[in-house]
Amino acid sequence: MYLGKALKGLQTLNLIDSTEVPSKLRRCRVVKLLHATIPERVCIRDTPEYEDARKGFWALEQAQCKPHCIIQPCNSQEVSDVMRILRNTGCPFGVKSGGHGRLAGESSVSSGVLIDLKRLDKVELSADKTSCKVGPGNNWKNVYGHLNPKGLIVVGGRASTVGVGGFCVSGGISFFSNRHGWALDNVLSFEVVLADGSIVQASPESNADLYKALRGGGANFGIVTEFTLSVYPYQDLWGGGIAYEWQQADDVIDAFIAYGNDNVGNRDSSVILAALNYEGQWLYHTDIEHLKPTEPDRDSVLGKFLQIPSLGITAGHASLSERTDSIASHTPKGLCNGYYTFCTKVDKRIIKFFFETWRAETDRIIGEHGIDGAPLADINFVPQNIIDAMSRNGGNALGRAGKEPFLVYLLERNWSNPNNSQHVWKAMRATVVKTLSKAKELGKEDDYVYLNYANPFQDVFDGYES
């Protein structure tokens, strides 16, 4: 059945005016309409196909949502057909790309229709090997698997299980960002289905305002059905983790700041600075990546981390797929997950205060409530190289171009019992509030909130360009 005929049938049944139809019945008829339009794509509740589709979520809270049906379109026209039906019936819906969101409703929905983009999994390299069309149904493992054997990369995620869609429209910190910028600044064009079902291209030459808005505006302007990404030469990495005793804080933080401030030396490197609790022992930890297959020189920005006495080093030669699989293995599926983020200007005192505060808050809730899981706090340095890339192709929506380097902080934790969620969120919020207060006291506050790490309690767009 063609969509036009389907909508005409809806009008005959008087279903478009949603106020005249009970919501449950309306959803049932929406399911029937979707099934009549693209029958092989609709997964109905209490069927094996439906339950299998729900397993595609990473976080427990997302997987627990039960949409009335799940529809899995195969191309942009089918997404358009679905959008027109949902728009004209007023049925609530959610959109899932890779399903790596953390909280219920982030890319899931209860009782409405879930549009699952998993079948939009194109990875198509251009003839000149300078760009690649990538569908939002991919995760980075699939993309890297296509490109890396050809000696090519795109600016993508550091964990292989992260999805393409949300990553590219919300930020996209990558191993390769010091060289090429964030993922959103490496999107050459978007194919987008708008709320009215129309399919448009957004690029610097066509729908330039939409193109800019999609580069940092998240999933608020339409459903992206295809990304055209810049492609770069690739070689294997030398990277991994280094663990340090808590007393090494000053040396580790000094090395981290030196890395971020060296705009020449850091172009072939990536560092995440973290504090974590491993089997009851608090440690400092760095994930270092040298974008070459050899160990970095001892006098380089990464070499400084190797010079500090450590508890152990797991770094070595690896492919990009191996490194991103390794990082993904530390964030298993099926648990409750919480993220909380904020930014400040660069200051050693704030970094140290942040980690000490998170340790104290975490120890408190473990002692009071016996909460399991892995508490982690980490920081990404956003150097001048990345900020300069934000002016590319007319700039993005973030409003960071021309500003000084800054730090992106992330609190993340998983736990098994949903009843403990309130305690975890309380500890996270206390850490953020105290650290932001410290930053303000020192004149180092920054109102930007990195969308890929944000939670529903945070006002992300208040810190964007007006």
TrEMBL record:
| Pfam hit, one | FAD_binding_4
Q: Which residues form the FAD-binding PCMH-type domain?
A: 63-234
Q: Which PANTHER family match?
A: BINDING OXIDOREDUCTASE, PUTATIVE (AFU_ORTHOLOGUE AFUA_1G17690)-RELATED, FAD-BINDING PCMH-TYPE DOMAIN-CONTAINING PROTEIN
Can the keyword Secreted be found in this entry's annotation? Answer: no
Family, similarity comment: Belongs to the oxygen-dependent FAD-linked oxidoreductase family.
Recorded source organism is Fusarium oxysporum f. sp. cubense (strain race 4)
What is the recorded name of this protein? Mitomycin radical oxidase
Q: Which Gene3D superfamilies match?
A: 3.30.465.10
Recorded GO molecular functions are:
FAD binding; oxidoreductase activity
